[in-house]
Amino acid sequence: MTQPNTWDIDEKKRLLIFRRSFHEHSLRMRVVLSQLPLSVTTCIAAILVYVFFPETLENPLFLLFLLSQALLLAVCFIVPWHRLPFPSFLVIPVLDMVSIAFGREGGQESLTGLSVLVVLPVIWLCASGLYPRLAIALSFFGPLAIVWAPLLIRGTFTVQAFTKPLLFPILILGIGVSVSVLTLSMVRQQRALEEKDEALKEALGASTKQERLVNTVMEALPLGVVAVDGDGNDILMNRRQRRTHLLATPKDIEDPNESQLLVFDEDRTSPLPADRRPVRRAVLGESFTDQLVWIGQGSEQRAFTTSARPMLDDAGNFAGSVVVFSDVTELVNALAAKDDFVANVSHEFRTPLTSILGYVELLLDDPAGLDHMAVTQLGIVQRNADRLLTLVSDLLAVRSGQIAIQPHAVDVAELVRGSVNSAGPRAAKAGIRLSMDVPDALEAHVDSSRIAQVLDNLVSNAIKYSPDGGDVVVAAWEDQEHVFCRVSDTGMGMTEEEQAEAFTKFFRAGSVRNSTIPGVGLGLPISKAIVEAHGGTITLQSEPGRGTSFTVRMPA
Fold it and tell me: Does residue 510 register a pLDDT over 70?
């Protein structure tokens, strides 16, 4: 292997010195580079004198000029300026002025204009940015001393002699002032840039720290999170979501588009249409919560609830969306198992209840062989068995999502009056003022037994959940297309979280669970199913400690 040429290495080092920014060099090198222009100019002057005016080399003042310049350049190289007080290097341009004074006096017979060399140390002083006032003063008095000192030494004290060279120091003063102003301006700009650079570094550091925090939080979340831009391109996806995306990818397609992913509806088998898929809905700017989808196939299929929120730019325009995927497979399976259990138990209850009712009816068909007390007790057994059988049937209906109704012409006002009259004794015992506000007649095409069941349940709840007494008002009215029933109380009320779960099967508020108020959390879900089977809606308004109001709306 050939050894590198030493000359080539030195040449590269020299080129590197001049390619660097001035402020990137060490202090010693900056001092040398500042002195170098004057040293080079001095060498050129010496060559010219040697070639054309050799007799000038015999002048001791000129020789002193040359030697002092060489000495000053050597001092710039030798002195460890970084160990001395920072402004100490400014002694070099001051000594340069003294050296130039010798050169001017010793070489003015051969080379004119040597005094102009003083502009170089003046520029050095003023461009340093240190002691600007002193630098400007030296830029005038230094050149003035160069042109006046010989006059003082020779004893020439005429006004003409002192005035004749006066323009020269004034000119140098102008150069010094210009350089000083430019330098101060550059220093201010540099400080401003340094402050901005520092601010940018701090902002970058904060941004980097924030990004690390966000990435850590994203990876720690037990949720899949994906952020998409306005064009549907993924801009952020955590590790859990990458696993979900892999689960949705068909095995025979390496890079599927959204419509090719294995995303299914709640029945687990019907592919979800492209415009109903969570990411597509998010790209279209929709905001939604808890959309249930199934992802994957076979034994690896998982259930996810998805939610999305749009991102807006500074102008309020859509800029993308964040979609969250939560694995709820175990929860969905547990709910299905619970529903299956309820359905199985209900089926098991139905057979013995049917037998009980059958034998009770047989006994009641021949009341002659029974005394009055037995008939009364069998009637109680029959009513409660009927009620229990109806509850079992409702459980099965809620499980299947179907409530059987038989609509016919009904006076809803009469149903309200019957419900209020039936609940009157219970309300009086609880210290509740029960009232109603209904018209004389209110015709509607509904299932009377089912609507009576809804009214009984709502009135019963209003009484149960007013343990400290109060008022319960049942009202009914109609408009051109709908019939309305409202049950209002001044009881316990519900929080917003409890209102959101009020129509969920088996849900009971925490304050109710800790009390002696009976119930299993099925009345409201069944009532909602009955109302919706009629094509109507049931809504609630509630405030803790102020009471609750349920409103039923049905087509007339």
Answer: no
